[in-house]
Amino acid sequence: MARLTVALGDYPHVAALLDGRVPVPGYSVEPIEVRPIIAGYRRMIRDLEFDVCELAPVSYLMAREAGVPITAIPVFLNRRFHHSDIQCAPGSGVAVPTDLEGLRVGVRAYSVSTGVWGRGVLGEDYGVDLSTITWVVDDDDHVEGHVPPNVERVTDGRSLGTLLEAGEIAAAFTGNAGTGRAGKPTDGWEAPATPPGETYPLFPDSEVIERDWYLRTGIYPLHSVIVVRNELITEDPALATTLYDAFATSKRIHVHEDPDWDRLARLRVQRRKIGSDPIPYGVASNRASIDALQRFSKDQGLIDGRYGDALFADGTYADC
């Protein structure tokens, strides 16, 4: 039986796959723990260290275009909205999204998923000219290249939270995408940054706005996708379908045991917000999100083209 090394984040809906309750026929699954899982993204993209790995969707698009021999299956383990992620500095004068034009805004790396989704919202929904903003970053992109000229790197070691508190940037993304962390995402990395002082949200009524945006657009931002080394799919063309079915079965087991998603608070909140499955798998049920991800990534200069369903390995993917 072939060994299959698998690196995933800590999610209850993959537990049955990782602990052996759900088999992958023909394979022996060997879980590889990487915490935080974002440290595994670079190891997969740069060294192909795992057979199967969770990856940031934007990083997957960039890696695919760069020729990294990996292909995705439409399993999306994590989702979230981003209107609440942009905080403004006191005295910045920012009252509406277009006020950000001509100013400096912090984000961990230009291609980080939160930044791509957030910029997409600013550009498409609010008409912000993203090219006029200086994007201040303090970390590397997982895939090098495609950084536009209006990206500035922090070189003195200060965190984005410190810069925001000092008013040296007008706004910043929060959490692991910006002010909530300091240092590079290595194994054992946590978010040690001191939260900035008094800041205020760009979108005070973010929950209402996020639900409205979802109802208008059908976009439910993707935050992870499963990728497989191409060599394995070449050797076993049925592997993509086999893996998809295993992830789907693992999810169904979790939903049966925890129908309200109480084991993962953020997805419980998301379920209430959208009124349905907080992590739908498959292509058809995620069409608007997949299209928006490619559109935003191309419009922001991260990829040159859009690939439609060719993003995914050939297989049978019933929505679940």
Largest sheet: 6 strands, mixed
Task: Please estimate the helix content.
Answer: 25-40%
CATH homologous superfamily annotation of the largest domain = Periplasmic binding protein-like II
Radius of gyration: 19 Å
Note the overall shape.
Answer: globular
What low-confidence regions span 5 or more consecutive residues with pLDDT below 50?
none
CATH fold call of the largest domain: D-Maltodextrin-Binding Protein, domain 2
Query: Order of SSEs, N→C?
Result: EHEHEHEEEHEEHEEHEHHHH
End-to-end distance, in Å?
Answer: 28 Å
Characterize the quaternary organization of these chains: single chain
Describe the structure.
It is a single chain. The chain has 320 residues and is of the alpha/beta class. The protein has 2 domains: 2-79 and 220-311, Periplasmic binding protein-like II (D-Maltodextrin-Binding Protein, domain 2, 3-Layer(aba) Sandwich); 83-217, 3-Layer(aba) Sandwich (D-Maltodextrin-Binding Protein, domain 2), CATH 3.40.190.10. 32% of the residues lie in helices and 13% in strands. The chain has helices at 15-18, 38-47, 57-65, 113-126, 160-165, 206-217, 230-235, 239-257, 265-274, 287-299, and strands spanning 2-7, 27-31, 52-55, 70-73, 86-88, 104-106, 134-137, 151-153, 171-173, 200-201, 225-229. Helix 4 (113-126) packs across helix 10 (287-299). The protein starts with a strand and ends in a 21-residue tail after the last helix.
